[in-house]
Automatic annotation (TrEMBL):
Recorded superkingdom: Bacteria
Source organism of the structure: Tritonibacter litoralis
Keywords: Oxidoreductase
Pfam families tied to this protein: Pyr_redox_3
GO molecular function list: flavin adenine dinucleotide binding; monooxygenase activity
Name of the protein in question: MSMEG_0569 family flavin-dependent oxidoreductase
NCBIfam families: MSMEG_0569_nitr (TIGR04046)
Record-linked PANTHER family: FLAVIN-BINDING MONOOXYGENASE-LIKE PROTEIN (AFU_ORTHOLOGUE AFUA_4G09220), FLAVIN-CONTAINING MONOOXYGENASE
Length: 418
């Protein structure tokens, strides 16, 4: 043990989640270190496209004791503004941060403490916080390897601007927030683009005089905790509603893009050579997305009526386009498709954690980030406690709660592990 530096707490991950915990531990005088495999806030700086901006309004940016203080609380910060905000937060205290440091293994000892191995030294810790997020491994399906190599493939994590893609049409796979925004990014540049539409829901942007997220916040939607959610499994597994903050923010109606020349297909079912196969679910997915949209509008309407709020009358909902037929197979060359842009998400990688904190599917087990294994924690994941967990809106509450749990654990005597 003499070759290891002892820390009361080791935090793995130097993004907003890890540094928010560090902020509160610093205030409590808890000895700790933050190990970051790249530079702090790496994902915001390096893994976003050039026109990236927030989807939620700036007022939702609420880092610990450091809320958004700019001139546009109802606007949407672009990438450089986001990193400036994060850097300014880090400058408010002196986090004990070690950058370019990859953690390679964490093991729990019989006395309930932890060994943490890293590329810049090894530690002995009383407690460990995992703040690495869930975006380790970009998802690309196995059948992508069967596609003709002449068709360029790229994952959204590597996309920066339209001119990275070859001349011709790009097929974007995935209609979560990233997929639809990348589609719009290319469409606005006049590039030929098609979209494989999955089952992601969509949301209104401005509705009855306010941003829909403002209404939902006021209605208490974002305060609902996962233990009170009527369908927690669905909440934790569903894709985020798509819309955008670009150019002041607006909703994204895929039917309008189809009307304007964007090709829409159903979910991708397979690929081989120049052949791309789709499920016959395009209209179903569009209808389901609209049902989500209409449901949000109806909930806001009900809130307005119940509270006698004076708000503008909404325009009637209209489906401006429908597919004439379900296309289940195309030849990429015939369609002019020369590239595929994958936007179907990421998988977390916890293979370096040798601690019994995972379920049978490899997902971490916790309550509000606190694991049953004493002294082990997660933060920065979706629905850790509320919808805002993992986002700027909820990170202050989550990190403060975790810091309090850490302080309480630090006051307990070390017991032999069972």
């Amino acid at each position: 043990m003499s070759e290891r530096e002892h820390k009361t707490v080791v935090i793995v991950g130097g993004g907003q989640a890890g540094l928010s915990v560090s902020y509160y531990l610093s205030g409590e005088g808890i000895d700790h270190v933050v190990l970051e495999r790249h530079k702090k806030f790496h994902s915001w700086r390096e893994n976003r496209w050039d026109t990236f901006c927030l989807v939620t309004p700036n007022w939702q940016c609420r880092l610990p004791d450091f809320p958004y203080q700019g001139q546009d609380p109802n606007g949407f910060m672009v990438k450089d503004e986001i990193t400036d905000y994060l850097d300014a937060f880090a400058d408010t205290f002196n986090p004990p941060l070690v950058e370019d440091c990859s953690v390679t293994k964490i093991v729990r000892l019989e006395d309930g403490t932890y060994l943490v191995d890293s590329s810049k030294g090894n530690y002995h810790a009383d407690q460990v916080v995992i703040a690495t997020g869930g975006y380790d491994n970009p998802i690309v399906p196995p059948y992508a390897a069967d596609l003709d190599p002449a068709i360029k493939q790229m994952h959204s994590v590597d996309y920066r601007r339209p001119d990275q893609m070859p001349a011709g049409k790009t097929l974007i796979v995935g209609t979560g927030q990233s997929g639809v925004q990348l589609m719009e990014d290319m469409h606005l540049e006049g590039r030929a683009v098609a979209l494989a539409v999955g089952p992601a829901p969509r949301s209104p942007r401005d509705y009855r005089g306010r941003d829909a997220t403002d209404w939902l916040y006021e209605m208490g939607h974002y305060h609902m905790t996962i233990d009170r959610h009527p369908d927690p499994v669905h909440a934790m597994t569903k894709t985020n509603h798509y819309m955008t903050g670009r150019d002041g923010g607006h909703e994204i109606d895929l039917r309008k893009f189809a009307r304007d020349g964007v090709g829409l297909f159903g979910s991708v079912a397979g690929m081989s050579g120049q052949t791309i196969q789709f499920l016959p679910d395009l209209e179903e997915n569009l209808d389901d997305a609209d049902a989500s949209y209409v449901g949000i509008c109806a909930a806001i309407d009900g809130y307005i009526a119940k509270n006698n709020i004076d708000a503008p009358v909404a325009q009637p909902f209209e489906k401006v386009w429908r597919p004439k037929a379900e296309v289940t197979e195309i030849n990429a060359a015939d369609e002019g498709i020369t590239s595929i842009l994958w936007a179907i998400g990421f998988r977390a990688d916890y293979s370096w954690i040798d601690v019994d904190v995972f379920d049978a599917h490899g997902r971490p087990k916790y309550t509000r980030g606190v694991c049953d294994v004493p002294g082990f924690y997660f933060i920065g994941l979706g629905w850790l406690n509320t919808w805002g967990s993992g986002r700027f809106l909820g990170i202050d509450e989550d990190s403060r709660y975790l810091a309090q749990a850490i302080v309480q654990h630090a006051k307990m005597p070390v017991l032999e592990a069972s």
